[in-house]
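Working notes for the structural subgroup meeting. M.R. asked for a predicted model of this chain before we commit to crystallization trials. I am recording the input and output together here so anyone reviewing the notebook later can reproduce the run.

Input as submitted:
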Amino acid sequence: MGIPLTGTLADTPAKLAAESLPSSCLIMVGSVVRMVETNPAVVDRVDAMERFREKWELGRNLGRTLN
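Returned structure, recorded in token form:
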């Protein structure tokens, strides 16, 4: 897992000069992130993934107690 680089577009060049990003990286700009956060399809998918994760962890923990 890489180190997140957060800041503004204005201070990004200085941060990148101090520490370069790994060869494979994902750069997301604020307006894109805000669009995704409010997109109903994405919100529904994230909610469904969270419910699945909770059920999976519940089942995994139940399996531990039965063993």
